[in-house]
């Protein structure tokens, strides 16, 4: 059995444990079978981005129509959510969310005043002390800065803009210094395999609390850059090396290796708690990597969308999609046939 198979077995066993625990709690009446309202959501605030990363799963920054979810529409949507009970956790991403300027804080304020805890995903380019001072008032599980290499040249080449490594590293350092939990996210491509330990050391030096490390998600612009995917042999090497490094650095940094897309989708389909993404056009997608749209917040009530969210995992098309996800690479003939188009349920 190779490292990939061992890992998939571990992931499958862990998903089964979650399912069994959920069923036990439902049976004893202490856990609902269905949630009528989301607990957590991800908001992709904009398609705009100041970088051009080779792996961008939603092709941010390409010639796209203006966002139907204007800042005013996001504020109206968040107010509606709060009026109906609010969300415990919101992950803010994009595109690059800091491109919204002051409007970002207006959107966050609506949720913050209701008690929401945030995660914020950024490429770090626009961070400065003034922005950090404004962010300090919010509750964060983490702020994530993407850093794909310990080398500025390799990172900048991958992210498409010179100077992006320096900006990201500066942002990361300031975030950690401000006492906000810093999460560094690293996408591993074949040429970074030899540099895993250097990435870990960089994350430690920047003051990170977590390092999330994983292979390229097979979606969006990654399909145009096939050289960035790991081969099976490289993925085996990645897993065995990270297992060893996790043990070696366990006292200094929490290192999380991303699960395979199929495992993640199986987990979402069994928990039905979160995972839904509100996109810049208002569509609600099941997950970043899962192209099914179950409604649009500009048109539909959140309760109606959420009723669909619980049930849609049983939809034969969705089941077929998850089953056809290559458990190793996540590559999916199903998605490629749809040429990256969303599928409306
Ligand atoms: S991956 Fe992130 S930083 Fe890169 S282009 Fe996409 S949204 Fe922008």
Question: How would the blueprint of this fold be written?
Answer:
Elements (H helix, E strand, L loop, with lengths): L2 H25 L12 E5 L26 H13 L5 E5 L8 H11 L4 E6 L6 H7 L4 E7 L5 H8 L4 H14 L4 E7 L7 H10 L4 E6 L16 H17 L5 E4 L3 H11 L5 E2 L4 E5 L2 E7 L5 H11 L3 H8 L9 H5 L5 E2 L1
Parallel strand pairs: 1-2, 1-8, 2-3, 3-4, 4-5, 5-6, 6-7, 10-11
Antiparallel strand pairs: 8-9, 9-10
Bound molecules: iron/sulfur cluster.
Iron/sulfur cluster binds next to loops.
Description of the structure:
- It is a single chain.
- The protein contains twelve helices and eleven strands.
- It has 345 residues and is α/β, with parallel strands linked by helices.
- Helix 1 packs parallel to helix 9 and helix 2 packs parallel to helix 3.
- The longest helix has 25 residues.
- The chain starts with a helix and ends with a strand.
- 41% of the residues are buried.
- The mean pLDDT is 90.
- The structure holds iron/sulfur cluster.
- The site of iron/sulfur cluster has 11 residues, from loops.
């Amino acid at each position: 059995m190779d490292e990939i198979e061992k890992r998939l077995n571990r992931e499958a066993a862990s998903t089964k444990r979650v399912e069994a625990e959920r069923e036990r709690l439902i049976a004893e009446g202490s856990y609902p079978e269905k949630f009528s309202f989301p607990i957590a959501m991800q908001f992709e605030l904009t398609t705009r981005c100041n970088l051009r990363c080779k792996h961008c799963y939603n092709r941010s920054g390409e010639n796209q129509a203006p966002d139907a979810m204007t800042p005013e529409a996001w504020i109206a949507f968040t107010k509606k959510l709060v009026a109906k009970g609010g969300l415990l956790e919101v992950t803010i991403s994009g595109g690059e969310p800091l491109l919204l300027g002051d409007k970002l804080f207006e959107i966050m304020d609506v949720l913050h005043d209701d008690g929401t805890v945030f995660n914020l995903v950024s490429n770090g380019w626009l961070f400065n002390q003034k922005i950090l001072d404004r962010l300090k008032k919010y509750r964060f599980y983490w702020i994530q800065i993407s850093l794909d290499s310990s080398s500025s040249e390799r990172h900048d080449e991958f992210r498409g803009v010179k100077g992006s490594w320096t900006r990201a590293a500066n942002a990361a350092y300031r975030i950690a210094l401000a006492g906000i939990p810093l999460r560094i996210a690293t996408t591993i491509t074949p040429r970074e395999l030899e540099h895993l330990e250097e990435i870990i050391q960089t994350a430690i030096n920047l003051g990170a609390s977590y390092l999330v490390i994983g292979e390229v998600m097979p979606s969006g612009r990654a399909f145009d850059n096939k050289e960035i995917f790991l081969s099976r042999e490289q993925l085996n090497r990645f897993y065995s090396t990270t297992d060893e490094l996790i043990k070696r650095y366990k006292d200094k940094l929490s290192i999380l290796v991303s699960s395979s897309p199929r495992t993640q989708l199986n987990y979402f389909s069994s928990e039905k708690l979160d995972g839904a993404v509100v996109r810049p056009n208002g569509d609600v997608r099941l997950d970043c990597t899962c192209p099914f749209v179950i409604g649009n917040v500009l048109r539909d009530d959140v309760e109606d969308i959420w009723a669909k969210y619980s049930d849609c995992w049983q939809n034969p098309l969705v089941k077929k999609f998850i089953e056809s996800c290559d458990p190793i690479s996540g590559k999916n003939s199903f998605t490629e046939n749809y040429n990256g188009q969303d599928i409306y349920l």
